[in-house]
């Protein structure tokens, strides 16, 4: 029997929260607003790459696992399940007839109905649990998880963003390195990463694995996606045309911080983390989305971007302003088939929990 966790009835509604709390609750949970699963070939491709690592290292876990022991898995930041199918399929194929329990974790405002529809019919033999909590909080009993994984989740900041952003920046990665606001976001991201590693070290059994895809920046700290430049120009237009107030401009941002390779790997090399985790394998690469998918259809690309941005935009802008923003994006993209492409940098890594 499949079990689900119900949302806490005392959980405040989004409308009752202040703007920063609203962002923290909605920024990674906007996926019910569009059919994100169908719009995101990028997510699916990253999930397929992550699945290769999962299959390789889950096999090592199963070698030492008694046949009568249930395989306990946790996915952190599962959203609506589009990125979950390939990893779950890889795990199921390896485990054969072994009992599997997978805890699907995301924030309370996630579209849980779509998630369940996406995964349960495809995997009727797996016992799914649903945990509506931040992945930056304790999620399981000590040493109870054999394998934890996440895809396209680690770049979302816990508790929203530490500051607004100056000028036309939508991401802190678009600001100079010496900008104080950017430095605040970098610190918040670093603290989130350290916290996640420590929490998962408590929950994952010795010999278990944490396998992660992290949406990343270039080694210089800038974003590689061309859509980010186009969207920044759209915000700049709205500022120049006085379509948003200075206060709205400061508050108009996406609470993601894409870490550089140094920001990902340096914490793993500290004495603190080296006692907990062994890095077994890592890959840093640009996803070749322009080669694999047709990204020339402007409206489809806008649909993909709306899928993870619209709820956050609506916290700062009214409905007319949101429409105006996307109108500018469409005009700026024009007939340029590359203006909204998503060739982002990605880091894939497998960490082994040490004894």
Characterize the structure shown:
The protein is α/β, with parallel strands linked by helices. The protein contains 13 helices and 7 strands. The protein has a 7-stranded mixed β-sheet with strand order 3-2-1-4-5-7-6. Helix 1 runs antiparallel to helix 12, helix 3 runs parallel beside helix 4 and helix 12 packs antiparallel against helix 13. The longest helix has 24 residues. The radius of gyration is 20 Å and the shape is globular.
Provide a short characterization of the protein structure.
The protein has helices at 19-26, 36-39, 41-63, 85-95, 112-119, 180-203, 226-240, 246-251, 261-268, 271-274, 289-292, 298-316, 319-333, and strands at 71-76, 100-106, 127-132, 145-151, 204-216, 277-286, 345-353. With 355 residues, it is of the alpha/beta class. Strands 3-2-1-4-5-7-6 form a 7-stranded mixed sheet.
Helices and strands, with pairings:
Layout lengths: L18 H8 L9 H4 L1 H23 L7 E6 L8 H11 L4 E7 L5 H8 L7 E6 L12 E7 L28 H24 E13 L9 H15 L5 H6 L9 H8 L2 H4 L2 E10 L2 H4 L5 H19 L2 H15 L11 E9 L2
Parallel strand pairs: 1-2, 1-4, 2-3, 4-5
Antiparallel strand pairs: 5-7, 6-7
């Amino acid at each position: 029997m499949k079990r689900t966790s119900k949302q806490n009835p005392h959980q405040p509604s989004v409308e009752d929260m202040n703007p920063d709390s609203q962002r923290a609750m909605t920024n990674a949970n906007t996926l019910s607003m569009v059919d994100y699963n169908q719009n995101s070939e990028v997510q699916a491709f990253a999930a397929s790459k992550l699945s290769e690592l999962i299959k390789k290292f889950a096999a090592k876990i199963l070698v030492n696992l008694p046949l009568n022991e249930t395989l306990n898995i946790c996915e952190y930041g599962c959203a609506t399940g589009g990125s979950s199918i390939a990893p779950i399929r890889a795990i199921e194929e390896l485990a054969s007839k072994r009992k599997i329990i997978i805890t699907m974790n995301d924030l309370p405002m996630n579209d849980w109905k779509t998630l369940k529809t996406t995964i349960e019919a495809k995997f009727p033999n797996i016992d799914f649990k649903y945990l509506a909590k931040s992945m930056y909080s304790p999620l399981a009993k000590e040493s109870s998880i054999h394998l934890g994984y996440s895809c396209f989740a680690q770049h979302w900041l816990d508790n929203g963003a530490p500051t607004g952003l100056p000028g036309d920046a939508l991401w802190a990665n678009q600001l100079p390195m010496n900008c104080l606001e950017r430095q605040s976001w970098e610190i918040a991201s670093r603290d989130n990463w350290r916290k996640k590693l420590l929490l998962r070290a408590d929950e994952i059994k010795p010999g278990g694995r944490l396998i992660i895809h992290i949406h990343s920046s270039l080694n210089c700290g800038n974003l590689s996606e061309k859509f980010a430049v186009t969207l920044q120009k759209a915000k700049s237009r709205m500022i120049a045309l006085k379509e948003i107030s200075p206060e709205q401009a400061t508050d108009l941002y996406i609470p993601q911080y894409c870490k550089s390779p140094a920001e990902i790997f340096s914490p793993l090399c500290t004495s603190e983390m080296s006692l907990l985790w062994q890095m077994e394998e890592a890959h840093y690469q640009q996803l070749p989305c322009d080669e694999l998918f047709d990204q020339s259809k402007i409206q489809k690309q806008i649909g993909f971007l709306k899928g993870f941005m619209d709820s956050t935009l609506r916290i700062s802008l009214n409905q007319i302003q949101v429409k105006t923003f996307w109108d500018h994006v469409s005009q700026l993209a024009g007939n340029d088939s590359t203006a909204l492409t998503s060739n982002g940098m990605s880091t894939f890594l497998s960490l082994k929990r040490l004894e």
